[in-house]
Specification:
With 180 residues, the protein is mainly alpha-helical. The protein is 77% helix and 0% strand. It has one domain (2-163). It is built from 7 helices and no strands. Helix 1 (2-52) packs across helix 2 and helix 6 runs antiparallel to helix 7.
Amino acid sequence: MVAATGVLVAAVFYILNLRVSQRNQELMLKSQEQNLETRRIGVIDSITSRIIDSDGTRDYMELLRYEWKDYEDFERKYGSENNLEAATRRYTHWNSYNEIGWMLRKGIVEADDLYDAGVIGSIFVWAKYKPVIEEIRRRYFGQGYLRDFEYLAGEIVKVAKKRDPNYSVPEMLDKYVPDK
C-alpha cells in the first residue's frame, strides 16, 4: 500500500510538473512572439523614419515634381554631374526603398505593416522613375539594380488592391487632377 501510494504521488507530481512545464513553454513562446513583433515594429520605425520625417517628406515631394522628356533630358537636369543635390535626394530615396524591399523579400517585415507605416509612397516614386531606372540598368548596373525597390512597389500595390480592388496608381502624383 505504501509503495503504491508512493508511485501514485510520484505520478501525480509528474503530471503536475508536466503541466507547469507546458504552461511555461506557452508563456515563453508568447513572450518570444511579442519580442519579435516589437522588433519588427522597431525595424519598420527605424527604416521609415528616414523617409517620413519632414526632410524626407520634402525630398519625396520634390522628387515627384521633377519633369523630363527623355533620359538625356533627365541626366541634364537631375544627373549627379549637373545637379548633385537632386541626385543625392533621388539616390537616398531609391536606396532606402531598396533596403525596405530587401527586408520585405527576406521576410523581416510584412507588406501590410509597411503599407500601414506609410510606405505607399514607394509605388509613386517607382511609377515615376521606372523608365529612368530601367535605362540606368541597361546602361550601367544590370537588371538586378534596385530590384528590391521594384519588389517593394509591387507588393505595396498588391496590398492597396487587396484593401481597395478599384485602386490604381494615379498618373499625376504631385498635382490635383479633377475627375474627368
